[in-house]
Amino acid sequence: MTNTVMIVGATGVFGRRLTSHLAATSWARLILTSRTENKAKDLAAQVNADHPSCGATGIALDCAVNLQDVLRLHRPFAVIDCSGPFQGATYDTARAVLKAGAHFIDLADARDYLAGFGPALDELAKRNKVTAMTGASSTPALSSSVVAELVEGWQLVDNIDIAITPGGKSEVGRSVIEAILSYAGRDVPIWENGQAATTRGWTKGDHIRMRGLGKRRVAPVETLDAVYLGERYGVTSRVRFTAGLESRLEQFGIELLANLRGYGLLGELAPLIPWLLKARRITQLWTSDRGGMQVCAAAVSELGQPVHSTWSLLAQDNHGPFVPILAAAAALRKLQSYDLPVGAGFAHRHLSLSEIMAEAHPYNITTGVTHEPLMSCGSKRPAGATFSQKLKRHA
To answer: Mapping DSSP to helix (H, G, I), strand (E, B) and coil, where does residue 357 land?
Structure first.
């Protein structure tokens, strides 16, 4: 059925937000899944009470056990995978969906999963005449769309700095903590001095200033963006993607664990997840409901002048957790309204920034763009002589 959409992991942190968003803004009939049937049915009952025309159904789903049976029974138009974490995940779920003749969207942000998605699934998607989109989340869909708009027409891109800092009161699920700990203290790809390099995740933290948030501490995280954007735009200096936690205790705690693992003093960090989730109940008492995202770029404009532009997003009233689902909602809307090319690849190749941010209208989420004298992102320090020398050489 063309209006049936199945959400995998609907009872998770982001699955619930996407469910709520689609129930209020889409005409889709929702199939809500969870490994625990009662959770799925309770969510469906809540959705139907708030939106009687939605016709949501809650079912038990374990993708390794009964996915094919569920797909045959419900024959969804599209499946959106919000389950996570995608670090170390296979493409089995996506393959089953595509073989069933349904479109596929996921909220993946894991670098290896994203990089291998197209090569692994493109032929299958084309054979079954469906579209598969990965990375329909804050990264790489939203971040890449922002960069594309900022640097359009620029002659030379020197550096790109991307930072995400959620509000401390935002709900954090087990899968998010699991994803963070999977690479904390381990080598993650970065783009430095115009080429691919590595650094240790969640180490070498620094402070930046963000609109509406003031000073926040951030550290390098694993993303596809660093090398992908560096190569795509021929960035001559760096692409830096960082993230931070509002609670200083949480931030320094993650950085400490990352450094201890980096020095070989700690091994697997997953056993700490239950303790970290319990600790958040205390640390988040002194935090706010405001989070944000920032993308800065320094370059040579189409007029040959040095330019520094900043795009910023501010989420208030604890609406930050809706940001990661905006791109997925926009991707589904486009699938329902347009005849998208069949095949598998990155979601942002089908989406513009305006299409993604149009989904934010129900929430207290605002964005803005500023153009300032050439400065380092988030600081008041000049970009330095290096960029000036590049500018002269380019001229």
So the answer is: helix
pLDDT of residue 170: 84
Query: What is the 8-class DSSP label of residue 375?
Result: B
Q: What's the DSSP call for residue 359?
A: G
Backbone phi, psi, residue 190, to 5°: -135, 175
Residues 6+ apart with CB under 8 A from 176: 13, 84, 85
Angle (deg, nearest 10), helices 174-183 and 273-283: 110
Name the token pair of 171.
Answer: 């709900």
Check the CA dihedral 317-84-131-52 and report its sign: negative
- Tell me if residue 165 falls in helix, strand or coil: strand
Distance between CA atoms of residues 141 and 136, nearest Å = 5
- What is the Cα–Cα distance from 54 to 64, expressed in whole angstroms? 28
| pLDDT exceeds cutoff 60 at 224 | yes
Please give the Cα distance from 28 to 48 (Å, whole number).
Answer: 13
Quote the tokens at residue 79.
């499946």
Non-local CB neighbours of 267 within 8 Å, separated by 6+ positions: 261
Q: Is the pLDDT of residue 382 over 50?
A: no
Bridge partners (DSSP) of residue 209 are 215
